[in-house]
Amino acid sequence: MQKEKISRVQTNLFSDLSNQLVYNQNDLLEFIDTPFTKEAFQIKTRQKKENYSSEIRNTLVKELKSKYSEIKTNELVLANIEKLNNDMTYTVTTGHQLSLFTGPIYFIYKILNTIKLAEYLNLSNTGFSYVPVFWMASEDHDFEEIQSISLFNKEIKWETNQTGAVGRFDLTDFNLVKDSMLELFKNDSDSEVYQLLESIDGHNYGDATFKLINRLFEKYGLIIIDGDNKAYKEIFKPIIKNELKTNFSFDSVNETNKKLEIKKIKRQLTAREINLFYLHNQERTRIIKEEQHYKIEGVGSFDLESILNLVEENPENFSPNVVLRPLFQETLLPNICYIGGGGEISYWLQLKQVFNSTKTTYPLLSVRNSFQLIDSISKKKMDKLSLNNNDLFKDTDILKKDYVLSNSSDLDFEHLEKLVTDYTVNLEAKIQQINEGLINFGKAESVKIKNQLNSIKKKLIKSEKEKNEQSLNQIEQLKERLFPNGKPQERVINFFSICNDGQIKKHLDDLYDAMDPFEKDFIILTQ
Predict the structure, then answer these.
(1) Of 186, 93, 98, residue with least CA distance to 137
(2) DSSP string covering 376-388, please?
């Protein structure tokens, strides 16, 4: 595949804050601790080494070995788990909700970016070892966000009445949506895609997702962690208790928000007084503090001592929300860098004080690579229309107008516009010379003349558009193909849509080869 780059700013696909996190983290030092650079990794690793206990490391490795004993995986994955026994081994991590069949393709980009960064660090002769980790946000309960995908212009949707932590959903209804996916690849039942999809199963949706991600990325040594685990929550128990007793995360985030407001940086998340949920009977329910009591709908009302006893007895029932989930992750893992999309990384800016309050090492933050995939059909259309990569990021109407202007020698208005400008300037000067009281009249007449010219231009352009109707329709089709529903491609298409030839390994390897964890610009890959 041919690889080219374009500034993220030029694409108009990303927010100003997202671009700042990519190109200039130095301006955000107040909120991120240490900028993401090649030189920062040794510094951050040493910080984590001083602040990460052997007890936590031992628990992590023990639980990982237990989890992976239930599935078949690559030897490289098992070797990476074994490496975590060594206090010279650290992680680079990404995470996501349990998107249906991996959801939009940026899910894949995040993971490959993380793997590639670990590979780079291991080749850097730092004396430390690094392994890539994917954190499954299996306790998230926002099912609507992840229940469907777009594949070959068809929506695949999991219809189920289940609620609560998505990772705990049973698979009773899942077979129907799985069959819908398999149907799309039934003509090639020996393909890698069909065999992979057919093998997805488990006790619940968390298990099924775990197996899917493992099958996709085991060859790269990716370690998968499901935070819905009692032993992991035991580690996090002191922080859960601290949150219930002091509301420290609420205060910390609000303190940071004031600083963000001064910098005119838009906040991405809102902290609650208690940033914890309670898991029970397949539900994930907010814990609400009212005066001296903690109310959990469907469970009861508790005073401080009673709810702390609940934490002591069953910490696995307490689930961190978006404010505390990063802290949970960084408490458990010997992690030095978190990789995510621009919007996701933006909300980490509100969390540094949360980490400081618990004396937990705040990781380096990296915005993942973003790609535009241009298939061979789209490339042929671009060549036929004489469009380059930069043209793709123009608004469709502007692109069509530019096309008409550049493809019609009769629509060169530059000379005519100059004549009109010279004429109106001379006209206004003459009017002012004769009667200064008519200056405003002269300017108004100049505007009328320019408006008449613009009106003529519009009519001529419209006429030319009608002559070029076929090409303009092709431009619309091309834009829709590359930016479905006017959205960035990576947020709409599913990875399996580029595997219509049945080959998974090849397409993953192509994307992996194109990854560069230190590339700041937007990457365009053309077949």
Answers:
(1) 98
(2) HHHHHHHHHTT--
Q: How many CB atoms lie within 10 A of CB 396?
A: 15
Q: Rounded to an integer, what distance in angstroms lies between the CA atom of residue 519 and that of residue 407?
A: 36
For the chain, give the percent of residues with pLDDT over 70.
99
Q: How far apart are CA 281 and CA 290, in angstroms?
A: 23
Domain residue spans of the chain? 2-233+322-370+506-526, 378-501
The H-or-E segment that residue 283 falls in is strand 283-290
Q: Is the pLDDT score of 409 beyond 70?
A: no
pLDDT band per the 50, 70, 90 thresholds, residue 414: confident
Q: Which residue has the tokens 């096309």?
A: 403
Q: State residue 79's pLDDT score.
A: 97
Contacts of 469 (CB under 8 A, 6+ apart): none
Residue showing tokens 């070892």: 129
Q: What angle do CA 375, 378, 383 make, to 5 degrees?
A: 120
Contacts of 338 (CB under 8 A, 6+ apart): 92, 93, 94, 95, 326, 329, 330, 345, 348, 363, 364, 365, 366
Instruction: Count CB atoms within 10 A of the CB of residue 29.
Output: 10
User: Which residue stretches of 333-407 are H helix?
Assistant: 342-348, 352-357, 376-384, 396-406
By the 8 A CB rule, do 475 and 400 touch?
Answer: yes
Sign of the Cα torsion 141, 142, 144, 149 reads: negative
Can you list the alpha helix ranges (DSSP code H) found in 349-468? 352-357, 376-384, 396-406, 414-434, 439-467
| pTM given for the model | 0.88
For 252, the token pair is 């910390």
Strands across the sheet containing 318-320 = 300-302, 293-296, 283-290, 276-280, 318-320
For residue 430, pLDDT beyond 90: no
CB–CB of 379/385 below 8 Å? no
- The 8-class DSSP code of residue 492 comes to T
